[in-house]
Amino acid sequence: MLSIRRINERLKEKEMTEYRLAKKINVSTGHMTKLMTGNIKDPRFELVCKIADALDITVDELRKKD
């Protein structure tokens, strides 16, 4: 599972919008909204890697810790 909180932190740190992230990782804004609102519980690993690369963090940093 993804840590939406961590994605939001990095977006703020990088002064990047969800829209810009969506364009950078080549997904629709609708898909990004579903991801960020938790409607997509288990995104593909490829997508997680793209998000991590775009935000300059590791995949492990994006994992939601139990």
From TrEMBL:
Q: Which domain of life is it from?
A: Bacteria
InterPro entries named among the record's database cross-references: Cro/C1-type_HTH, Lambda_DNA-bd_dom_sf
Q: Where is the HTH cro/C1-type domain?
A: 7-62
Gene3D superfamilies in UniProt: lambda repressor-like DNA-binding domains
Query: Which protein is depicted?
Result: Helix-turn-helix transcriptional regulator
